Amino acid sequence: MQRAPVRLGILGAGGIAGGRHLPAVRELGDRAEVVAVADLDGERAHAFAETWRIPHSHDSLEGMLDAEDLELVVVCTPPGAHRDAIVACLRAGAHVWCEKPPTLSLADYDAITAVEHDGGPYVSYVFQHRFGSGAARLREQIASGELGRPLVAVCHTLWYRGHSYFDLPWRGRWATEGGGPTMGHGIHQFDLALNLLGDWDEVRAMMGTLDRDVETEDVSMAMVRLESGAMMSVVNSLLSPRETSYLRFDFTDATVELSHLYGYDDTSWVWTPAKHVAEETVATWAPTANVASSHAVQLRALLDAMDAGERPPSSGADGRRSLELVAGLYASAITGRPVARTELTPDNPFYHSMSGEPASRTAAVGA
User: Fold this and answer.
1) CA distance linking residue 63 with residue 265, whole number of Å
2) Does the keyword NAD apply (predicted)?
């Protein structure tokens, strides 16, 4: 028997909700139905609902949770509102899919995890680059050892955001955004890298505020040692006029590269064999499914997990890994010393705030 569509609510009627999430839901046909939208700006919520033909709109999350029987809530608010919104949804019995970055701190992340229960509801986070067929093919090859051992990785997010991008009062501030391009932009690329290569062990980093009028950094660079012993360079920038997202993985038998900007398909990937590898082996390497990275592909995986009563990908410890690297990178850049992953415990100030300083709380629910 076919399951009825998942009853889905949207929190935050801003650009990411209409630009990414609503198209993703519609792409999956009758698997999910958006029944309500909430935003602190009730008029904006109403206009959003009319544009997307959503039956109900609300001016608060609490109002939406009380009025609608929701199974899944998509959180599209600024980062400072993530923790409280997620906790409220979980306590109301709804699963959550939350935009990146997951939370402002590891402490907030762990407070959310404490509210989850075996069997759900669970919260997962938007890291859609994990879910294209190119990444899936490389993940299979790493697991099987087909390309040999991973040795060297490059993870560069070279983007451009002009001065006007930071006109929104919550951007570029530790207390409301949690960080700069490391937290809100590069996290997509190194989430994919860590998802493929596994946990990190130590990071050495620098950061600077070179051109934008922000509290946080506008560029950061890091050297990361992975638990496997492989090493990775990470660059996160919002100052790069020729924008690119670039990942490179050097194995003993091959180099695999991904060049794209905000999303990829199979044509964005290149497999280059080492000189000792037979040509007939190389012909089997590249992916053929051509499933692009997208919100829709990740949402499908989330709905599959909900149907199975399982924790979805990019959730729990699997969703925490990238936030750990953010905290470690900032800790290293600010203290001027290498930071081990094992140091990021509750007695460490960078566990509680990415700046290492006490952060003010915000309960804003707009986007």
Assistant:
1) 40
2) yes
pLDDT at 241: 98
Sorted by where each begins, the domain ranges of the chain are 6-128+298-319, 132-292+321-352
Q: What are phi and psi of 121, to 5 degrees?
A: -75, 155
Dist CA 353 CA 83 (whole Å): 13
DSSP bridge partners of 204:
223
Across the beta sheet with 32-38, the strand order is 56-58, 32-38, 6-11, 72-75, 95-98, 123-125
Q: In degrees rounded to 5, what are phi and psi of residue 161? A: -130, 115
Candidates 2.40.30.110, 3.40.630.10, 2.60.120.650, 3.30.360.10; CATH matching 132-292+321-352: 3.30.360.10
pTM above 0.85, yes or no: yes
Each residue's pLDDT tens digit, 72-106: 999 999 999 999 999 999 999 999 999 999 999 99
CB atoms within 10 A of CB 228: 15
Inform me whether the pLDDT recorded for 361 exceeds 80: no
